[in-house]
Design brief:
single chain, alpha/beta, four-stranded antiparallel beta sheet, globular
Length: about 575
Amino acid sequence: MAQVPQTFFDALAVRTWCGLALGALGRAREEIDAINVYPVADGDTGTNLYLTLESAATAVEAVFAGYGTGAQEPSLGDAVHAMAHGALIGAQGNSGTILAQLLRGMAQVLAEAEARDGSRIDGAGLRLALRQAADSAREAVAHPVEGTVLTVASAAADAAEGAEGDCGTVAWAAYEGARAALAATPGQLAVLERAGVVDAGGRGLVAVLGALVEACTGETVREAPKAPEAVPVPVVVSDAPARAEAVSEADLCAEGAEDGGPAYEVIYLLEAGDEAVARLRERLDTLGDSLVVVGGDGLWNVHVHVDDAGAAVEAGVEAGRPYRIRITHFGLGDVHTGGERPPRERAQRAVVAVVPGEGLAGLYTEAGATAVLARPGEPPASGELVQAVRRAHAREVVLLPNDAELRHTAAAAAEQARTEGIRVALIPTRSAVQGIAALAVHAPERRFDEDVVQMTSAAGATRYAEVVVAERQSWTTAGICQAGDVLGLIDGDVAVIGPDVTATAETVLDRMLQAGGELVTIVVGDEAPESVADRLEARVRESYLAVDTVVYQGGRQGALLLIGVE
């Protein structure tokens, strides 16, 4: 279906662009993965770009959903900030981290232009945004290399600066400039020329810019070369095949071993100030390579390749508060180590669970599950869940979303995993305490279907509640609440409104136990009063005979308390 041309760049154009770019990367993902030979030939650049853009698009959709079906729409600033934030928290790999910074650079200029000139940005504003995107991405990389996505981004910005006209004209110029630069990348990086491919990250950026053209003009771009002498995409150099297989896996391993590059990729989000991050950059630069640090305003995404993964994480701890830490060994055929270890045997069964805080993440991990940490306001995208299922490395996987709003996301992830030959069962848990109950009866030695039935039954028999603080005045099923009121939600509905956390929690617990119960699970968040768990345990002990209580520390989980009764 043809897109409506956008003469000006506004919030709707951002939404359209994100959707089109996600579709373009989805179609090109396997091709981009196949030509991924730099900086590491791990065949995941297309997937990383897709997951990063998916997170950005999801954040933009959430902003529009917040305005409902009314006539009012989010501002351009709202949309681009959501896009940039979504990309930042969802950035995967070297290429995804750079894409996140490209989007952040654009967002900074577009938001400032809106504040100055209004919500509709013309071609001149888009030119400035593309320039800032390229420059900020280059600044985020510790040691920029030509022949990469940075080169393609700079060429796009250069071409856009020479274009006069509306947003469509500027977008076309940027796209054509990027395509020409992409075709030239094999002449700038020897590893690309030997493999007979163009830069994979640059290829992904061309797809994203092609989507920008379509969002601005309604025209679908073509991948044909601009001139006879230009090399098609993906490029073939001499007689080499047009995919990464032009260089054998053994050759790549030997090359990596000779180069003596690092063995681990370390990525984490980091809450820290600018000065601490500046020191972190210096520290990580001495530990490894492929260093990219993007973000700002107290939140950063850190990416580096190192031999000592622990030291890279410790450096983050010294700088601030790292979380969503991902450490990947480049594994069999590792281009850095030339390792010859046999592939790890798949486990028969695994559990993958979304958890709302670091404390529960540790609990689930100790119980043998693969935990996906969901920070408040930062739900995981389906791609992140798919990656967790892959990381579990099992033939059968039980997926616990632990949030009613994540059910569709989890279903999409399960469907994708099934196409890869993994047997996945989705148990629609709506709270982490239901997930704890399900995990408690998990028995890998049982038949898969029997195990899923038992886990589903345990989760369904667990009533759940949470105690939170109201952020604004609103109507609830228990009446009108004011900002700052303490709300007790039982099975997803507001049941109690009170002024005090402990008193509200006691009322919630009493109402839940009126229907009976044998075990109370309490998960305490960092912002809950220190004495609240002791008070609740004492109330159960004094008022409800033969009911046991277990308390866990949840960390920064959004809710002050999670309560389960089974």
